[in-house]
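Recap quiz, item 2
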Amino acid sequence: MSDDYAVVPIRRTASAIAEPAAVRWLLIGAAIAFLALFLFVPLIAVFAEAFQKGWTAYVSALREPDAWAAIKLTLLTAGIAVPLNTAFGVAAAWLIAKYRFRGKNLLITLIDLPFAVSPVISGLVFVLLFGSQGVLGPWLAQYDFKIIFAVPGIVLATLFVTFPFVARELIPVMQALGSEEEEAAMSLGARGWQTFFRVTLPNVKWGLLYGIILCNARAMGEFGAVSVVSGHIRGLTNTVPLYVEILYNEYNFTAAFAAASLLAVLALVTLAAKSLVEWKAARNESTYNLAGGE
Amino acid sequence: MAKRIKPRGILPGFGLTMGYTLVYLCLIVFIPLSLLFLKAASLSPGQWWEIISNPRVLAAFRLSFAAALLAGVINTVFGLLVGWVLTRYSFPGKRLVDGLVDLPFALPTAVAGIVLTAVYAPGGWIGRYLEALGVQVAFAPIGVVVALTFIGIPFVVRTVQPVLLDLEKQVEEVSATLGANRWQTFRRVIFPQLLPALITGFALAFARGLGEYGSVVFISGNMPMSTEIVPLLIMTKLEQYDYAGATAIAAVMLIASFLMLLVINFLQWRSNKLHRLG
């Protein structure tokens, strides 16, 4: 950029729009110190605490049958919640990006609603609906079907808290792409589903993947909402985050941090996948611009 | 129904996606949430007031709002700093730092809760130095602020970063040519452009902090009247099968959150409009 202003003494311009090196390093230092206190030290501490009593204690803590049951329930919950919310996210994004209709902004706000609700309240609404004193409670009791303090309640609470993730990532991506390519495909004789799978999906795949990754991280890690509906029955209705809480409250710190370290690894994998997806999406965009642009 | 048939778009699937979206939205979100308000509305104003005006409940509301506010302010200041450093400067490990800023989004809150407690408790990695200074963080109201600060870190950073990237360098050059020093340029030229993003980021962090449960319950110590936050109080009422009490408090929380959501949407809508004009 500075090549354009060859007449202007370059050194002076550069110093006039940049800070002196001392200020620069001071600001970098302050930012890193803040992040270290609140992010880096706690992150390292998870693993330090988990391995405090060595590798054998770590492995044996994770080989407990209750730990296995918690891991299985967490996988099951995410396995149900993530596909359902992905299907919803795709449908909602298609609806919002491809058509004009009244109340669209209201719909977008409603989709975002679960983000604004405290996790505890997200659990509470299902207790009010399906709990023993709830609206449908007596009816459920008649058929001996338990939702609250059982697995279905955990799945429902997770569905609620992870509801907006995929839709929210996908809507701006689809809106930015417009519908010209789909319209071209239709005019060339493609059917609706063909257009979706061959044209739309390849275009939005990175945004979709990013939404799924975030949705999955929250589904596996949700604590507050699940805590309200679970009833904390060991080996039956404990997800990994709830299992961490129980161990911690029993002062079994090494085991608690061992289970927590699994979730921390999941978080790190999520962040790595996110960076990868962003990098891929940026590269796609630049090659797209190169091919389609000038 | 519609008198004029305006083209909605020529692609198929309007009915299918509209139907599916609305049914799913109603089942998972709308019906359960409306039920909470119906249940809260079944209380008489007198009953309702008795629950809310209880000193323990008021203390919890005061703590939740004050801690979320303070954490939001801390995150606004340091979020701007981190966003600035990450977009303007280069230093070793920058990409790693940038990636880790999102950790509070990805790390389950229960994990954040127990590890912050371990680190900030007396004798913990950071707590032992604070203890020497006479500051107790864990099991005190400051602990709530620490947990909410952790939870809110990404919000301001991620709303400020794109705006910082979009700023035109020429404007700063002009300001410098007109004789402003670097601080004046920042305060008078750069900062006003960042302000909408800072407010949005603050509002997001505040709203999240208000409802946060998992990371706070471990570090706060949960003493009624002193370190008990509103979500925990709802939880306690539920465990005592006091559904009316839990619902009344939850309804107040929900209304506060919805107001925040409206403010945030308005701010984002306005800054988008400014962006498009500019």
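Residues 243-277 of chain B form the longest helix (35 residues).
Chain B touches chain A through 93 residues (CB under 8 Å).
End of item.
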